[in-house]
Amino acid sequence: MNRELREFRRLERLCLEQAALSTMDLARSGLLKVAHDCRIAAEAIEAQSPRGALAGAVQAFKLALSAKRASNRH
Do 43 and 5 form a contact (C-beta atoms < 8 A)? Predict the structure, then answer.
């Protein structure tokens, strides 16, 4: 499952990069749609993973702590 998740995220990044480089509106639009579909697929995989939800909560907690520490320093 991690391999699938990484692949969808890689494809999403690739499509976004190519869309940014595209000079044709139709190609850019298609690449952005594929990137969106890849993001949706990756989010679905993450939602199925119990570890993914826990990892997200831990990451949010770490960010909140680091923001609090930074505000306490000033």
Answer: no
